[in-house]
Amino acid sequence: MKKDNNSDKITRKEAIQKMGKYAALTAVGTFVILNPLKAQSSSPPDAGGDPFD
Amino acid sequence: MFGDHWILWYTISNSYSIIEPEFKLLLDSYLESNSTIDFSATISDSIDVSNDLTYSISETLFNYLKDCNRPYSPPIIPLIPLDKSYRNISKQYNFEGKTIQIYYNSELVLKTVHPALAYCCIKSSDVALATFDIYLKDEDLYLFKNECLISRVSKHDYHLIQGKFIMQLLCTLHDKQESDWIGTFHGSTITDGNSSILFIGESGKGKSTLCALLAANGFDLLADDVSPLLSKDKHIYYNPLAISIKKGAFNVLEPIVSDFDSLPLVKFNKTKGDLKYIPCEKPKNNHYPCHAIILVNYKPKAGTSLEKVSVKTILETIIPESWLSPNPKHAKQFLDWLTDIDMYQLTYSNTKSVTIEISKLFKQLNKKL
Prior knowledge:
The complex is a heterodimer of chains A (53) and B (369).
Chain A: H1 2-27, E1 32-34
Chain B: E1 6-10, E2 15-19, H1 21-32, H2 36-46, H3 51-68, E3 89-95, E4 98-104, H4 107-110, H5 114-117, E5 121-122, E6 130-137, E7 140-145, E8 148-154, H6 158-174, E9 181-186, E10 188-191, E11 196-200, H7 207-215, E12 220-223, E13 226-230, E14 235-237, E15 243-246, H8 250-253, E16 266-269, E17 273-278, E18 287-298, E19 305-308, H9 311-318, E20 323-324, H10 328-339, E21 342-348, H11 351-366
Parallel strand pairs in B: 4-6, 11-18, 18-21
Antiparallel strand pairs in B: 1-2, 3-4, 3-5, 6-7, 7-8, 9-13, 9-20, 10-11, 10-12, 14-18, 15-17, 16-17, 19-21
Helix pairs in contact in B: 2-3
């Protein structure tokens, strides 16, 4: 198991080497985090469109 | 992995993250490191970067993981008894022999739900399958089902009462529990009788108008605005609410939808102005598999084009506006479901050519069935 982990690590290290400096620096800014709604909803009101105002 | 992207789901936060393979590589390396020093050493050994940049990469990954692991806290529903003195307006609705009773306390509150169901409104002495109470008390809107509080929100969040009501109505009509659903998508679904297509997009981009057009041209509306996905079969289920159409689309639909002029005008709010609700014939089945998601973009005078888009584009639109169950089983099912979905972006203005385009797509999708 340990051997597998080590070989994974080496492969990963090689992949980072291959990726290079600029790709690595660009890559860290590319993630997206998306949060679903916590409760069911219909279409939210448009700005200024609240009938309860 | 979807095409060029990895999608990760975080149990603690119920967040979905879309990352590129390069980011995944750095993240895996970070997670397997014993410390930030260990990670920095791996990076420095692999690529020629300064200590500051290595530290910056490490810090970004740390903050990313922190953001992805913010605990999810479901809304807390207090134990509040039903106040029957608010039962000022009584309406019954019939859905293929199933009667639902709803009590409202005012005409204003009635507008939250009734206009989209008005076509099912009947006078009935039948025993209701479920009884709902919706009322405004002080500054809050309350929704009860069979005398149990389902939701209490600020009156300005009335769309959450609508959403919760729809969920409970779907549970009643389809004999399900809330925990049976993978999620409810903010989008409209059309079926050709074999499978279905989910149309998504920002408000005002023409989803509902397009679905009304398609429903008038041989297709059936399965769900408008809220499209529910069931865990058991991963099908989208029938939502009986009528299609809500804004005044801006009246001229497009008048010549196509029969009796459009005779539909009542509903004044809901200042921005949306007058609305009309188009009831549609129910599809033959209660549910259909969905094999495509289309991001809709109505552009005046534009030609019709249907192009493949990335999972990133689709998820960036759909996830923040949809409710997705935090149950790990459902999250996995949602991701599995996505792997079978074709994803497109549709730009249109011409009603005839868009109908032809959607017909072609249905034929193509049905070949897979």
